[in-house]
Amino acid sequence: MTAPCPFCALPEQRVLFRNGAAVAVRDAYPVSPGHTLVIPMRHVTSFFNATSSEREALLELLDTAKQQLSLSLARLATTSASMTARRQGKPSTTFTSI
Q1: In 37-52, which positions are buried (b, 16+ CB within 10 angstroms) versus exposed (e)?
Q2: Do 69 and 79 form a contact (C-beta atoms < 8 A)?
């Protein structure tokens, strides 16, 4: 039996931004200041398995989150992004560094 998806029941107060196909939230266990997750609404195993409109929605929220972080954490010199996919409910990184 697969464990329930932790992102399907996110409390609304955790949501920073949302659009028709994705949601952005601060990571509950951040590894750096501003650590933000951009998550597709539909379960996909990889960014590359998302439809073109889903990828566009994910990148739109990534841009929005980056702009917000640039304003709120201006002292940080760099911003990086990585993509993570879920396999049977467990995260596994499939692509790193945009």
Answers
A1: bbbbbeebeebeebee
A2: yes
Helix, strand, coil shares of the chain as percentages rounded to 5?
30, 30, 45
Nearest to 38 by CA among 97, 82, 76: 82
For 39, the domain range is 12-96
Whether the predicted pLDDT of 1 surpasses 60: no
Query: Is 86 a member of any domain?
Result: yes
- Classify residue 2: in a domain, yes or no: no
Tens of pLDDT, residues 58-78: 999 999 998 988 888 776 656
At residue 96 the predicted structure's pLDDT band, cuts being 50, 70 and 90, is very low
